[in-house]
Amino acid sequence: MPDLLRTLVNGLAKLARKAAEIGWYTGFPIIFFNLLREVLHHWRAGTFSGEDALVTLALVIMVWFAFRFVGIPLGGSLLALAYIAYSLEGR
Question: What is the distance in angstroms between the CA of the first residue and the CA of the last residue of the chain?
């Protein structure tokens, strides 16, 4: 019985880690897109402030870390999202 319980606990821990990883990789681009769109909105409205500059720096660092540690799929998708946000904000 203890082996069964240990296996169950290990399986649930592994499942929780995978769920957190999936949540991170789906939530990260959504947050990135929303932040970038807000920064672009402030830039075009003429209300760009120091707060927006810090968010922009954080976004650039996010893209760099995405390319550096995950690779082209995540980094490229973030750049594509940046282009889409820029295109949508131009309307």
Answer: 64
